[in-house]
Structures are given as structure tokens and as C-alpha cells.
Design goal:
single chain, 286 residues, Rossmann fold, 33% helix
């Protein structure tokens, strides 16, 4: 059996003396080599966060490495995970009628710059079928009404299980997920929001922004929770606008930002660079 080439270790725990030395010493003793390492202390919560990539000696299996680390994790009461770098997360994408985020994700996946495996696209509209199938990705049309929402969400959850999807990405999927589905996908669903949260909510957000004369518009990628648009934020970005921009131009600029921000969030999630910190995240971006 071929061993693991590289691993990523992420953890958080109560800050204490000697954590880094214990982790580095354990793996150094076994012949592992550090390729990249980042750490952060939340001084308010007295909590320590760390992400480290290791090159592995020949022959190690992932479960063997986890067993090796278990005593250190237990000693410091860590919330820890170890991943095989060569195992790409399986991603299911949900979309409605706007395809800019979907197109960007599909293109970056196809050209090899986004380290995920897209296992399907689900939509409550047929609009994105041609685009999806051009990339030779399965397209699942699941229409929804208020009355059929529980059945439609059961189908989505069935696809997640059937495809062994590690993550559901809402690429401008204009349906609110139920509390039940949010709980099932906790920490595994990423949404892109059309503003730099908190921002203009409800219908016609760019028209609201225009009427208020905003000078910055943006987008926010966050984990999905039962609290609408209140999940832990992964990434945000903004662009400057002025009085010369009409709502349609603002919307076009906003769509470009949304695609960029969602791609970053998906990439960092796939590379295990995001560690939960209560209602926030610690992101060890490059």
C-alpha cells in the first residue's frame, strides 16, 4: 500500500507553554519535514491556532499518523484534524440563474488551479445546464416551491451522501436552506453574499446601494448557518465606485468580486486553511 506523501495538521486549543515544541518535536523525531507552518493566538480568548504542512517519510498511512499524534492532541486538549494533501475535497455546487460564480469555479477546477473535485451541480432552474454539461459535470435539476421545499432539500442531501461530497458551495443559489439542512452541513457549506456584510439586505441590493450613494461595494463568503447570512466569514473584498456608476454597472462590478471571493474561500477551505474560532474563523491564507 502506497503511503501518504504530505499531510496538513490543523488544531486549536487553550494556549499553553510548549505547544509548538511538542508538535514539531514529535514529527521531527519520526523524520517528518515541515514545509509550511502558521500559528495565531487569540489573546482575548487565550486560544492558540496552528496549521502545518509536513512532508512524510516513506511508508506512513494516514490513520497511523493520526494515532501517532493522538497523545499530543489529548495532552493539550486540542480540537485537531490531519488531512492527506493529495486527497482533494469532493464538492457539490448549487446555483440558481446567475452563472458567474459557477463559471469561475468550473473553469478554475478544469484548468487545475482549484484543488477540488466537482462531483455535480444542482439547480432549481435549467438555465445553467448547458454550461455545466459543457464541462462534463452532472447537472441535477431540482425545482422547488414553498410546498415542495422539504422534499427538494431531501434530494439535495441525498446527492451529498450519494456523491460523498465533502462540501456544498452555494454559487448564487437563491434559496434559503432549512435549519435542518444547515445543521447537517455545519462547517461544510459555503455561501457567497452580494455585499460586504453587514450590508443592504433584501431585494435589489445594488439599487439600495445606489440610492444611498455608496463608495464601496463588495462580496462576502461565509459558512452557512441557520442564522441567515450570519455564518463565520471566510473572505471579503470590495471595489471603489462613485456617483458615475449606475445600478447595472454596480451589479456587474459586484458579480466580478463575488466570483473572486468565492474562489478564494473554496480554495482556502479545500487547502484546510480555515479553522473555526466560535462565530469567527482563523484563515491561514498564503
Amino acid at each position: 500500500m502506497v503511503g501518504v506523501n504530505e499531510i496538513v495538521l490543523t488544531f486549536s486549543c487553550r494556549d499553553a507553554h510548549g505547544i509548538v515544541a511538542a508538535v514539531a518535536g514529535l514529527f521531527a523525531e519520526k523524520g517528518f519535514n515541515i514545509k509550511e507552518s502558521s500559528q495565531f493566538e487569540d489573546v482575548n480568548e487565550r486560544r492558540f491556532f496552528m496549521r502545518t504542512e509536513f512532508q512524510c517519510p516513506p511508508g506512513y498511512q494516514l490513520e497511523e499518523i493520526k494515532a501517532l499524534f493522538e497523545p499530543v492532541g489529548a495532552r493539550y486538549e486540542m480540537d485537531w484534524q490531519i488531512f492527506d494533501v493529495d486527497t482533494r475535497p469532493r464538492v457539490l455546487i448549487a446555483v440558481s440563474q446567475w452563472g458567474h460564480c459557477l463559471s469561475s469555479l468550473l473553469n478554475n477546477w478544469k484548468n487545475g488551479t482549484l484543488p477540488i473535485d466537482i462531483v455535480g451541480v444542482v439547480s432549481n432552474h435549467e438555465v445553467m445546464r448547458d454550461l455545466t454539461e459543457w464541462y462534463q459535470v452532472p447537472f441535477h435539476y431540482l425545482p422547488v416551491t414553498r410546498e415542495t421545499k422539504p422534499e427538494q432539500e431531501a434530494q439535495i442531501w441525498g446527492l451529498v451522501q450519494e456523491q460523498r461530497a465533502d462540501c456544498l458551495v452555494l454559487a448564487r443559489y437563491m434559496q434559503i436552506l432549512s435549519d435542518d439542512l444547515c445543521r447537517k452541513l455545519s462547517g461544510r457549506a459555503i455561501n457567497i453574499h452580494h455585499s460586504f456584510l453587514p450590508g443592504f439586505k433584501g431585494a435589489r441590493p445594488y439599487h439600495q446601494a445606489f440610492e444611498r450613494g455608496v463608495k464601496l461595494i463588495g462580496a462576502t463568503a461565509h459558512y452557512v448557518t441557520a442564522d441567515l447570512d450570519e455564518g463565520p466569514i471566510i473572505e471579503q473584498s470590495v471595489e471603489r465606485v462613485s456617483h458615475v456608476h449606475v445600478p447595472e454597472e454596480m451589479a456587474e462590478i459586484g458579480r466580478d468580486i463575488e466570483a473572486v471571493v468565492l474562489n478564494r474561500a473554496v480554495r482556502w477551505h479545500a487547502e484546510h486553511r480555515v479553522v473555526m474560532n466560535g462565530t469567527k474563523t482563523v484563515v491561514f491564507s498564503r
